[in-house]
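Title: Comparing notes on inverse folding

I've been comparing how different people in this forum approach sequence design from structure. To keep things fair, I'm posting one structure and asking everyone to reply with a full sequence. Here's the target:
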């Protein structure tokens, strides 16, 4: 039971890292990124292949994952620099599908639908049955560091410019702010955070495949950010924990309903998650942790 709780709590930590990514690019900069699963996949594959095929240390593999996803964020922003709103959302979703399809078809690099197995975990052999618990501490330690960094950026002039761009990028540009540069930086930071989440996931589960990185991941992270409060780093953490707890809780509730097939149980779980979100947004449309009004510095 303890191992199961540690597993679920670790996945919640991975979701929290992804939700922090969404906080930066959506909550602070106002850019809707539906390609989150693509950055998640890039980080996972980069670190997995670096440590299996390349035989590099795990720490270096994770750094490579962060770098690859950050560069991808820069490229996506440059390509979509003239897009906003729904158009940006659609293009970013297309980016995620491109990454997933490349993972399926480019077997020479990604091993295709067979996936990458045997991904090493830090000190996994030495820790044995305590690996899940140790990795839980590692994951949430990195999440704490990422939360601190995002919070500091949010409170800094950089964060104030991002919020100005979110509210009206034309006005921010008229005020002399290099809007495109700040958008590129925000997307790069968000990509790096999502890549870190992918690397953490890969080294925890020891196996990744293209079907792991479906748009459903992005939906769950949007649920987490929306529920917790997408403008605040603390909201990302709270939302991730709530979504994982609710998704796992519905597993037992739906299974307890008599007369349902396995497919119907899965559909019932998705229905419960959606219904819970609707109720939450009706009661707290700004999320559980709403954005606080900040006084301008004197």
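Reply #1:
Here's my take.
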């Amino acid at each position: 039971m303890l191992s199961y709780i540690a597993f679920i709590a670790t996945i919640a930590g991975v979701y929290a890292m992804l939700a922090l990514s969404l906080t930066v690019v959506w909550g602070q900069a106002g850019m809707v990124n539906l390609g989150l699963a693509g950055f998640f996949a890039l980080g996972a594959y980069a670190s997995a292949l670096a440590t299996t095929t390349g035989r590099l240390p795990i720490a270096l593999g994770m750094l490579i994952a962060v770098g690859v996803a950050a560069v991808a964020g820069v490229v996506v922003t440059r390509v979509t620099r003239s897009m906003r709103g729904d158009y940006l959302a659609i293009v970013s979703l297309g980016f995620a599908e491109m990454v997933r399809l490349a993972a399926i078809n480019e077997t020479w690099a990604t091993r295709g639908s067979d996936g990458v197995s045997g991904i090493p975990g830090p000190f996994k052999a030495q820790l044995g049955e305590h690996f899940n618990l140790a990795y839980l501490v590692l994951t949430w330690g990195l999440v704490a560091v990422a939360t601190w960094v995002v919070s500091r950026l949010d409170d800094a002039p950089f964060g104030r410019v991002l919020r100005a761009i979110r509210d009206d990028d034309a006005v921010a540009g008229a005020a002399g702010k290099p809007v495109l540069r700040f958008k590129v930086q925000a997307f790069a930071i968000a990509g790096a955070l999502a890549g870190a989440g992918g690397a953490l996931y890969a080294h925890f589960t020891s196996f990744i495949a293209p079907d792991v990185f479906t748009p459903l991941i992005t939906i769950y992270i949007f649920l987490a950010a929306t529920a917790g409060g997408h403008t605040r780093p603390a909201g990302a953490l709270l939302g991730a924990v709530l979504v994982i707890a609710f998704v796992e809780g519905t597993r037992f509730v739906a299974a307890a309903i008599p007369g349902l097939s396995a497919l119907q149980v899965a559909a019932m779980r998705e229905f419960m998650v959606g219904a819970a979100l609707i109720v939450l947004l009706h009661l707290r449309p700004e999320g559980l942790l709403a954005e606080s009004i900040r006084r301008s510095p004197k």
